[in-house]
Amino acid sequence: MREPKYIWYKIAESENELHFNNNNLIVAIANKKKITIGKFKEKLLACSYNCPHAGGILSDGHIDAQGNIVCPLHHYRFNMVNGHNITGEGYFLKTYPVEVREDGVYIGMEEKKLFSFL
Ligand code: FES
């Protein structure tokens, strides 16, 4: 299987510009899209704004002791690295790679091809 190609979007000039709430979550904008950014053990993680179950706003949830994001609505848990639904309800959370570079913090979004056979 082909490795995904990413387009990188800058969300901040530096990590210090990301002012996390007490729950270590914030909302950022990448490519005009709201994204949830989490911080766990000094590592930045990114996932979709809404929960895949029923649209809960994930930045209003929290990160548990294992680094999973917990949705505020029904408390389903998701791994913020691979999107797995830890509590087993069968949903999948969209996650994004994060890179902290010298010139800023970037979120990678998969390049969408017009024709999938190209
Ligand atoms: S909306 Fe997130 S667990 Fe139900």
From TrEMBL:
Q: Name one Pfam family in it.
A: Rieske
- Family statement drawn from the similarity comment of this UniProt entry: Belongs to the bacterial ring-hydroxylating dioxygenase ferredoxin component family.
UniProt organism field: Panacibacter ginsenosidivorans
Q: Recite the UniProt keywords alphabetically.
A: 2Fe-2S, Iron, Iron-sulfur, Metal-binding
The Rieske domain covers which part of the protein?
8-107
* PROSITE patterns named among the record's database cross-references: RIESKE (PS51296)
Metal-binding as a keyword of this entry, yes or no, is: yes
- Which InterPro entries does the annotation name? Rieske_2Fe-2S (IPR017941), Rieske_2Fe-2S_sf (IPR036922)
Q: Which cofactor does it need?
A: [2Fe-2S] cluster
Name this polypeptide is given: Rieske 2Fe-2S domain-containing protein
Q: Which domain of life is it from?
A: Bacteria
**What are this entry's molecular-function GO terms?**
2 iron, 2 sulfur cluster binding; metal ion binding
